[in-house]
Design goal:
By secondary structure, the chain is mainly alpha-helical. Helices cover 68% and strands 4% of the residues.
Amino acid sequence: MSDKFVPKQKLTTRDIHILAIRHCWSRQYGWNYTTMQAIGYCWSLMDTLKKLYGEGSEDYHKAIGVHLMFYNTQPHMGSIIAGANIALEEEIGMTNPDAVIGLKAGLMGPFAGIGDTVLITIYRTIFWSMAAQMAIAGNYGAALMPLVTSLPRLALSYWFIFLGYGQAKKIATSIATDIKDLTEGACILGLVVVGAMTASVVTPRMAIQIVVGNNPDGSVVRQSLQTMVDGIVPSLLSLLVVLSSYWLLNQKWMSPVKLLLTLFAGGIILHNIGFLV
């Protein structure tokens, strides 16, 4: 490593705010199959790079080249990487580009796994299921649910820039440890929501009635098989439909479209033969 790096201008809190705004809105700009998020990521950093190296300088162009290399992670968690990246470059500049490349390469995989689980899969399962329930009930607020619930994620992404900038080199270990309990709790909550949605949205009902006795006048007393099953294991048929659907989706020959057509055709057939209501 060469002599200690001295930035052209010191970064201020305002500069980090500008970085946060640019990164929140530009991180998917220019997405492509070659470098994925690299163009948007590089553009979000450009104002801070100009202050650190001076626009048009050799180090500035070197930094642009580094940040146009392949880069891809969960967009919201990527804010932590961007903040840590700038903190590192403020310290060492382009005296050791491999350290900057290593920081991004080392964090983008683990943070993608955390972000995709917590901020995409679980988030959509919980809030979009709630929106679906509201829509079924005729509540027009369902259309706003995905938008409104996205605002906290945007605020979190903004704050992540400052978290990454402040923690910098410690970020990989501290966040990975602290996020474990949050991820586990969010997974449990997501499973509870899916279970509740299964019981309330997937509602096949059997039409079969069973003779259970005779009235004093000699007429036959019948009871719905569905009522009897619900008395033992509520929503059992709903559970069987969902578990069967998951099993089918794991088969190589089955696709979501084929599954929908299968369920549609199966429902029509079972209704016409008198098994389902």
